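Take one protein record:
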Amino acid sequence: MEIRRLSGKAIICDVGSFDYLLPVPKKDRHYDLLDVFRNAGVAAGAVIGAGAGPFFLTGSNSEMVINISSESGVVKNGSLFGLYDKENNKPLLTKADNTKFALLGQMFMCEGKPGPVIELNVSGRIQDGKFDAMIREALHVKYGHLNNAVGLGGVIVQEKGKSLYHVLVSVFLYFTKFPTVIIFFP
């Protein structure tokens, strides 16, 4: 991660929309992570999250792992693109060489200051289901009675085991025809 602390002016940030993906992708929706900093009013800090990579620059669809920090005008970009290499018929992970993205992004932004954190230590699986869905359900049980939106941002560190990720091969087809590629990261 480009920054080690996750507190100070914490902001959950949705840019774009899934509506820009369905039923037909709106190819004119282009964004820049540096604009996200500016529009949120955070002069220094970090943005982490996920979004659609800049197909308008890479020439193909990609998923983006957002990991950017900015301090004293210096930007560090540790973001990654998950692409599908059609030529070799395999998934490809590349370091981002720009701060652009497309269609949508879901991010957590903060000033990178020290502060309290929630630490979850998980070992083994006791029931079926997705980890993020279980966290969402726990938040709903605890805070669902409130009339305010509740968001949680942070990082999940997986020390062992396998995870499944997907990359949609083509953003220019109708959603129901998207082939999905599963990427295993041991």
